[in-house]
Design goal:
It is built from 22 helices and twelve strands. It is α/β, with parallel strands linked by helices and 475 residues long. The relative contact order is 0.13.
Length: 475
């Protein structure tokens, strides 16, 4: 499994807040993601109906997941492929390495795969003596930088053009490319030059899966670079790594989800390449692999089926939640310390690695609800984060000060009259501290929040409940 440092969230977040280059890179990317998504959805009047249909498809599939996985396996075998079941990350890596060894592989190309990142397949293959080359441009950049992805859609979103130029100049000299390039088209062409031979030399190609189709045994990937097609057709062996929740019953169901995924992810009506792979090469096919393997990864997903966190398995990995998250927008993906950042990562990481390892992540959220609003499959992320906070409190995983503060608040909240008097006093005090400009520049026990010149608007002078009654509403 990819090495996790989620327990270092606080330290990494502070470092990220001080990184001015990171701030500017994240700001540019966030504006683009949010604006393009909004424009794409404004042009789709049936968006809400599509969301409802997508939720129904995913809920139905999860309810009968064992049935559809068996149907998928049968369909893959009919098409001449092989299906392997991996209970955890270690088993997934062992299976992939063994397939590559049986193929006599020395070089492996890899399309974008979050499950591959999750289980740490690159490290396993390299430890077995094989060269692994990421072919997605963003993944290739962070591979050169020896960094994990900071975003599930744009892995190198935290990198500036100057940093990428330096990376290419440093690593591409061995291929005879010694000129330092700075313009984006030139950098892209240089990466193409290097990767072209890697595609031709590869013995095995590994891709992820956006969807697995139970009725046909097909695997669907969506890309904008065409690297996935070259990865799954040129090598003699194609391996698909996918979580068990990726299966959907029919191709028609997949089309519904495909109308939502690119719009939510990149603001496109459809990605440049939507590729279906169904088994190995058949007689008469002009290209394609000689062998086709699918590695279905559980790694904690079955446990999620048993409780309220089942809803997280609806996720189609569009990244909209993190694009709209103020916390992710401030600290970036690396602060979260594992493969999945942002709101989705704050739920998935504690469930996969354990709350003790990732105890800070459920609290790295303002509960503003934007992630739930923009999720194309209506995952109630704030509710799931609250559930994790409740578990954390039950297992006494927070700091002692935080636990005592929660107990005090709970005691006060159970006494409505006293609660109203205390909150009224707090609001009036904060209003006085805000002065004529109505801005707070410091509060006891909140010094870290105000660090760097941040200010907080002071309350207007009355509590919400008093304002509610003043407007003629029932308390």
């Amino acid at each position: 499994m990819t090495q996790a440092r989620s327990h270092e969230f606080r330290t990494r977040a502070v470092q990220a807040l001080r990184d001015e280059t990171l701030k500017s890179a994240l700001a540019r990317a966030k504006d683009g993601f949010v604006l393009k998504r909004r424009q794409a959805l404004d042009a789709l009047p049936e968006y809400e109906a599509l969301r409802d249909r997508a939720v129904a498809i995913k809920n139905h599939t999860l309810e009968y997941l064992d049935h559809y996985l068996e149907r998928y396996e049968e369909a893959v075998i009919r098409q001449g492929g092989h299906v392997h079941w991996a209970e955890n990350a270690e088993e997934a890596c062992r299976i992939v390495v063994e397939i590559c060894r049986q193929a006599g592989a020395r070089s492996v190309t890899k399309g974008k795969s979050m499950v591959g990142e999750e289980v740490g397949v690159n490290d396993a293959l390299e430890a077995a003596g094989m060269e692994v080359v990421e072919t997605d441009l963003g993944e290739y950049i962070i591979q050169l930088a020896n960094e994990p992805p900071s975003h599930i859609i744009a892995p190198a979103v935290h990198k500036t053009r100057g940093q990428i130029s330096d990376l290419f100049h440093k690593h591409h000299a061995r291929y005879g490319l010694t000129e330092k390039l700075v313009e984006v088209p030139d950098l892209v062409n240089e990466a193409r030059q290097v990767l072209r031979q890697k595609y031709l030399d590869a013995d095995v190609g590994i891709t992820g899966a956006n969807f697995l189709i139970a009725e046909t045994g097909s695997n669907i990937i969506v890309t904008n670079e065409g690297n996935g097609d070259l990865t799954n057709t040129l090598p003699k062996v194609h391996i698909v790594t996918a979580g068990i929740e990726k299966v959907v019953p029919t191709l028609e169901d997949a089309t519904t989800l495909l109308r939502l995924l690119p719009r939510s992810a990149t603001g496109q009506q459809i990605t440049s390449y939507t590729t279906l792979s169904t088994g190995p090469r058949r007689p008469g096919d002009p290209d394609g692999p000689e062998a086709y393997h699918v590695v279905l990864v559980d790694n904690g997903r079955s446990a999620m089926l048993r409780d309220e966190f089942r809803e997280m398995l609806r996720c189609i990995r569009c990244g909209a939640c993190m694009n709209h998250c103020p916390v992710y927008g401030a600290v970036g993906g690396h602060a979260y310390g594992w493969v999945y950042p942002g709101p989705m990562g704050s739920v998935l990481t504690p469930l996969t690695l354990g709350l003790r390892e990732a105890k800070d992540l459920p609290n790295a959220c303002t509960l503003n609800g934007r992630c739930a609003d923009v999720c194309p499959v209506r995952i109630p992320l704030p509710d799931l984060l609250r559930s994790l906070r409740h578990r954390q409190f039950q297992h006494q995983l927070g700091t002692r000060r935080a636990r005592w503060a929660l107990r005090l608040w709970a005691w006060l909240a159970q006494r409505p009259g006293l609660y109203r008097r205390v909150t009224t006093l707090q609001v009036r005090t904060l209003r006085l501290l805000g002065g004529r400009r109505g801005r707070l520049r410091f509060l006891p026990l909140a010094g870290a929040w105000f660090r760097g010149g941040r200010v907080l608007p002071a309350p207007e002078g009355e509590t919400f409940m008093r304002a509610w009654r003043r407007r003629g509403k029932n308390p």
